[in-house]
Amino acid sequence: MSHVSLSGYEYYVLFIDDHSKRTWIYFLKMKSEVFKQFQEFRALVETQTGPKIKYLRSDNGGEYTLGEFVDYCVEVGIRREFIVPYNPQQNGVAKRKNRSIVGAAKAMLHDQGFPLFLWAEACNTTVYLQNRSLHRALGHMTPEEAFSRKKPDIGHLCIFGCITYSYIPKEKRTKLEPTAEKGIFVGYSETSKAFRIYIPA
């Protein structure tokens, strides 16, 4: 991305399960972190589902062709498929997904008049929502349901950019200080029952 995010990220990498269309997004400060994020992704999905990753399709970017990445895939039995240079249509699923994420994130930021350093929050929210939205290739099913075999709960969804008030525990304030802090809703947490809130101050 042309702007550094609030947390200092400049790039992201997507991993898409070809069967369920479920997408994972990881944010990076350097492209060389792709290998580490793939290891984390592999451990996560193989532990959750049982079956092992058998194929990995990517472009010929240096981050995917590093010796350690290639050696790792050989070691764990993952077959690599590289698209032919200058033929992005061979990896059309990833290209279309990338376009839809950036387009939605751009619309969310500009609709709310937010600073562009919130791009990572907008991209993360887009992926979260797309995983919980019906997908044409899956019929009447969401990618999350196709992957986990459980219907996702959507009762907690909020409008990106809505005003929030976060409760301040009494241990962290005096009697005269406010009991809540005003913020802006910018996303969801995948690791806890929490929202991501941006507090401009």
Please tell me about this protein's structure.
It is a single chain. Helix 4 crosses helix 5. This protein is an alpha+beta fold. It has helices at residues 34-49, 62-65, 67-76, 92-112, 119-131, 143-148; strands spanning 11-16, 23-28, 55-58, 79-82, 163-167, 180-188, 195-198. A 3-stranded antiparallel β-sheet has the order 5-6-7. Strands 1-2 form a two-stranded antiparallel ribbon. The protein has one domain: 2-Layer Sandwich (Nucleotidyltransferase, domain 5). The longest helix has 21 residues, at 92-112.
Which consecutive residue ranges, at least 5 long each, have pLDDT under 50?
Answer: none
- Total number of helical segments? 6
The CATH topology assignment is Nucleotidyltransferase, domain 5
Q: What name goes with the CATH superfamily?
A: Ribonuclease H-like superfamily/Ribonuclease H
If you compute it from the alpha carbons, what radius of gyration comes out, rounded to the nearest whole angstrom?
Answer: 19 Å
- Written as H for each helix and E for each strand, in order along the chain, the element string is EEHEHHEHHHEEE
Distance between the termini: 25 Å
What is the number of beta strands? 7
Task: Indicate the CATH class.
Answer: Alpha Beta
Number of domains: 1
Q: What's the story with the biggest beta sheet?
A: 3 strands, antiparallel
Strand content: 15-25%
Give helix % range.
Answer: 25-40%
State the secondary-structure class: alpha+beta
By CATH, the architecture is named 2-Layer Sandwich
Name the strands of the widest sheet in spatial order.
5-6-7
Mean pLDDT: 91
Globally, the shape reads globular
